[in-house]
Amino acid sequence: MVSNIIFRIILVLLPSQLGLHLWPEYSRILGLKIDYLSPTIYLTHLLIVFLLVINNKKISIEIKKHFSLLKIIFILIFVNIYFSINIPLTSLKWIEFSLYFLFFLYLKNRKNLLQKNLKYLYISIFLVFGIQLLQLAGQKSLGGLFYWLGERGFDASTPNLPKYQFIGREFVRTPSLFSHANSLAGFMFLSLLSLRLFNSNFYSKIITLASIIVSGSKNVILFLPLYLIKKTSLKKVLIGSLLITMVLINFSQTLNSSLYTISSRLSGISHSTEVIKNHLIFGTGLGSYLNGLDDNLTGSQITYENLQPVHNIYLLLLSEFGLVGVTLLGITFYFSKISPKQSLILSAVLLTGLFDHYWLTLVQNKMLLTILLASFPVEYET
């Protein structure tokens, strides 16, 4: 009973970023506080810890069942931390990963747990969309209570804020409780796919789709047809994504785009190739990409805009794990059983991950991905 209540609260709070940011010396670059380097204690993380503590016996059983696979993961963690260029941060990132992994183990054998509590995911979706519309109408953040849920302060005059044109007017791409409208769109995309897999009601799907469109995320809108596909080949999606990444790397070296967004993304890809060259074998360490990037930027280039992860999960993984880590990840992936429904969810992540990093870096997206992968396990496929 208590476990179910905690899980429901987690579902409702999924879009929130309520947490305590810590600012040790390694979270700053030339005096700039960098969110991605800041250890953060989120309320949702504390709820997961509580859930795991009261279900520790079930978790222990699951760990024993998967111990062979865990050996590979343990080796990966040890190597990645040992060779990290920011050992404290990488260690904390692996603790966070372990939290998600244990949460996954707890959820995956709780048959239909998410389906039975789907109305609480609806609440999250409706909350996010409602805040998004109010921000759109006012062209500014709402403040007050919503600040405590993680809303970032902004208005139409905030520098470098993403905008789009509609009916001859310029509108801010409102992010609701997320750090960016693209992260919001990714969250809603996976929510939309899960609603389809659960044969959810029509209105919840329409609201989720509307939120994606209002976000203006071209990346997610481009891959919306995935909603209509019943079965995907994860291997083909992965190979295709890697080929596109190689093309993007080539463009980053040769294309001088006049479009600001494309130009900045390609510049980020170009910088990531330098990080990869410098840390090819063992990587920078999980979460330490920006520390490696710092070494390749001149003083004038060290700005908040440039100090963010590369917008491609494949390049980010190779940067942080190196060839050794990526090989161990590949072995783990190869021996993992993946259900058709998990394959659809992962396909969405692999495709949208071509042009963004939020599946690896932002708490709301990682939490939702963990819950959905655990909710469609192999043994429950029919």
Automatic annotation (TrEMBL):
Keywords per UniProt: Membrane, Transmembrane, Transmembrane helix
Domain of life (superkingdom): Bacteria
Annotated TM spans: 5-24, 36-55, 67-85, 91-108, 120-138, 177-195, 207-229, 241-263, 313-336, 343-360
UniProt-recorded name of the protein: O-antigen polymerase
